[in-house]
Specification:
Blueprint (H helix, E strand, L loop, with lengths): L11 H7 L19 E2 L2 E11 L4 E7 L2 E5 L2 E3 L6 E4 L14 E4 L1 H12 L1 E14 L8 H6 L9 E13 L9 E7 H10 L3 H7 L8 H14 L23 E9 L5 E5 L6 E3 L13 H8 L6 E13 L17 E11 L9 E5 H4 L6 H10 L2 H10 L3
Parallel strand pairs: 2-9, 11-15
Antiparallel strand pairs: 1-2, 2-3, 2-5, 3-4, 3-10, 6-7, 8-9, 11-13, 12-16, 14-15
Helix pairs in contact: 9-10
Length: 393
Amino acid sequence: MLKGPKKITTDHRNYINSKNYLDTYVSIAGTDRSTNLFIKDYRVVAGCFPIDLKSKKILMIKHAKGGNFIIPRGGVEYDELRYKKEDSEKFQNFEKIPNAAYCFMEGGMRETWEEAGVKGKITKDLGHYYYCDSNNKNENYEAWIKRKKKMFPKSIEYYYQMEVDEVSEEWPEKGKRIQKWLELDQAVWHIVSNGRFSAFKALLKTDLVEDKNEFYKGYFESDLKEDAYKVFFRNKSYKKYSEEVSEACVVLVDIVLNKNRDKILVNENDKIKFQKVNMVDEPFIWRSSALFKWAKTKKIDEIKFISLQDPVGFVKKQNAEMVDSVDNLDLGTYEYAVTCCIYELDDKFEMNGRKWVNINDWRKNLDGIGKIVNGFLKKDDEDLAQEMEKMKI
């Protein structure tokens, strides 16, 4: 079980001085948002997944006036900046405190109590994610703090798994929120249809999901066979950015192998096809794939979903450098996040514009995306990292 959060630096001046590296709006008096924490122009958000492992349910909330159920989460306060121990040779905070990374459990637990009336213990760190779409602009900050509608700043969202000790009948926002325990598939429906893709990625890391790829497989098979998707994003389309990396455009690569795993499906020029992911196809990104659309149209039920790996690598922007040597907060360093869907298909099937080739022959002349795919297939992380440093799409 995780302990904390605690401020681990022995030099208290580091914490005081860290405020010089943080941006916050304190000039708008009398509003809750004026005390929210911003790191390098990103609003810091934290929330918890209150789970019951026995019943395999999640406690979620929605506004009393209606809408989707969501995970309790909210803005971290300025005085809730905390650190946790982290073994890394690189700095993992902008204050350059050695062996420390940001930790916002305290803010997540506070928001979970205020919004959902839940108390408990943090049992798992579910990672941090970015919320950034084409409508997020720097000038949104002051408008957002002044509560202008549909004006959202960029944010970094931290999620934690909570083992529930108490669900109170009285809590600070009872008049505005409704509590409810939901099954996993119900939780997925509400999270995805509301476009909460960061929360969806965190959900996959909870102890409620035993095997991520088996989870995805069920939705893939349903998508392939049913006329309509049972779960989908119910909102307007806008540019898709990665949740794992800030402002990186997501590209999808289909890796199709035959049953013997000695052949791979490639373009006529022996290249691996990739395409940008449409926001409306999230989080089941195979829906953006020409391969999936071909299989669905031709009713090829024999195609077997193996795994979805997101992401397998990133492509840096030209001349981009990591900001302040921080290796877990890139803040706009990368151009692309490369995601792979892996399938198995009998090589008797032919797709227009693509062909089957021997995988060893294909490996002899690789560039760009092909090298990422090959590195992923070989699980050669060191070569893969070196290749991504210099590659361009």
